[in-house]
Amino acid sequence: MIVASTDKKHVYKSFALHNFRQIPQISRLSDEQIKDIDVVGHVLPFKSNNYVIDELINWDNVPDDPIFTLTFPRKEMLTDDHYKKMEAALDSGASKSEIKKVANEIRMALNPHPAGQLEHNVPMIEGHKLTGMQHKYRETVLFFPSQGQTCHAYCSFCFRWPQFVGMDEWKFAMKETELLIKYLQQHTEVTDLLFTGGDPMIMKNKIFASYIDAILDADIPNLQTIRIGTKSLGYWPYKFITDDDADETLQTFERIVNSGKNLAIMAHFNHPAELSTAAVKEAIKRVRATGAQIRTQSPIMRNINDDPDVWSTMWRQQVNLNCIPYYMFVARDTGAQHYFKLSLVEAWNIFQKAYQNVSGVCRTVRGPSMSATPGKIQMLGVSEVNGKKIMAFRFLQARNPDWVAKPFFAEYNEDAIWLDELMPAFGEEKFFFENELNEIFNEHINKSEISNFE
Ligand SMILES: *Cc1c(COP(=O)(O)O)cnc(C)c1O
Ligand code: SF4
Predict the structure, then answer these.
(1) Same domain for 230 and 163
(2) In angstroms, rounded to a whole number, what is the distance separating the alpha carbons of residues 260 and 237?
(3) 94 and 151, same domain (yes or no)
(4) Do 259 and 132 belong to one domain?
(5) Could you say which of 108, 138, 153 is where a domain stops?
């Protein structure tokens, strides 16, 4: 077994904003770069650890290194106006609370809750809102355990950033499993339970196992797959190797597998660099040895992975490590999106080139996909009909399961980055799903179940 070298064992796990200067490698940055981290870091959340800093970032390649970009705030992640506003507040020696006020004003302008994440899809049971859950697609319930709402390190592009900067009243989180279990028992159409966050693998095994064991003890026949959405393999593989409860965590995984259910670790990797260390390889091996599957997903982002070679290399390495490529997502419209965004056409071009260059074992991946109001929509490509360019799409997941896998078409739009910028092709007034979507929407409004609809 690989153990972190002793100097690595000492974890400086999270840096508060003001003490990122303690990172030894920071001295390699220019005063200007350090200032930029400070200014932007007062608006966007920053957190990292010694694994990311020492083993993932190639400091000879900074500031272009993709993992550096993924980790550290930088000037371009704010607009000029926002940057100057925060800079002025800091330079003027404003009080903590004044700085916080400025930060929150800027944050409010960054679309903190894309597509009304706040209250949508919150299921009800016996008149209670289950605020720690989301049930959007028939088969799968999302569960946000309250202790899993932070991460080992933060990604600079993350759409969950409002909850990390403490401006959220809403933190999807539910303390107890009792209602969750009741919900799963009553909703026999649900086959998959997805633990998400933040990162549920930030939880100590004692807490994680208390959720899992209660669910397994309830012996819910319709529940077939337990998924865990996590970036821990990318950001803290020692979770499964040298953390004091690493073995216990893996034993909890084994109990899921031994109960006859599928355990799918939905691993978040953004770049092949995250697959290159001895630690991640060992961690993957140990997780796989429990009988768990590892499926991988990532958004596609400018300045991080906007290159077909990066994707084909990443998928190939994942398959070599016995992981299954699963999703390529299009980045959401929030936070520093202007810095990371790619148009749908650009994203698809990269996807296609990468997909062409790998064998079928990597082509389990689907994308580029938008998680939009009506569902997960995959861009199938650009085509031409009667001499006119069109864009083709299909639903991978949909609010109405009848929509899944049905192709539909939009007028070619090179600049569009999201569904709401697309027009139906062939002179149609609406996309095929729009009337029904409005019906679902109105139904929910009438029942006052959902005030803010995604
Ligand atoms: C992606 C997603 C799921 C899971 O969809 P699969 O296609 O089964 O992976 C479930 N719920 C929500 C809200 C999602 O965004
Ligand atoms: S690990 Fe996931 S939830 Fe956490 S900061 Fe990164 S993208 Fe966001």
Answers:
(1) yes
(2) 26
(3) no
(4) yes
(5) 108
| CA atoms of 133 and 296, how far apart (whole Å) | 22
Ligand 1 probe mutation, 120, 266, 376, most atoms within 8 A of CB = 376
**Looking at the structure, do residues 212 and 289 belong to the same domain, yes or no?**
yes
The more confident residue out of 327 and 22 is: 327
In sequence order, the β-bridge partners of residue 407 are 394
Pocket test for ligand 2, best of 231, 236, 337 (most atoms within 8 A of CB): 231
Question: Per DSSP, what are the bridge partners of residue 180?
Answer: none
With cut-offs at 50, 70 and 90, classify the pLDDT of residue 6.
Answer: very low
Q: What range defines the domain where residue 99 resides? A: 14-108
Per-position DSSP letters for 88-136, written without gaps between them = HHHHTT--HHHHHHHHHHHHHTT-SSTTSTTTTT--EETTEE-TTEEEE
CB 154 within 8 A of CB 160: no
- 452 has pLDDT over 50: no
CA dist., res. 154 & res. 351, Å (int):
25
**Atom 12 of ligand 1, nearest CA residue:** 136
| Shared domain check, 386 and 281 | no
Whether 382 maps to a domain, the answer reads yes
Which of these ranges, 49-53, 111-115, 183-187, has the smallest mean pLDDT? 111-115
Which residue reads 């709401």 in tokens?
420
User: What's the chain's Rg over C-alpha atoms?
Assistant: 22
CA 137 – ligand 1 centroid, Å: 7
Residue 162 CB partners (closer than 8 Å, separation 6+): 107, 112, 113, 168
Residue-wise pLDDT for 300-355, tens only, equals 999 999 999 999 999 999 999 999 999 999 987 777 788 999 999 999 999 999 99
pTM of the model: 0.92
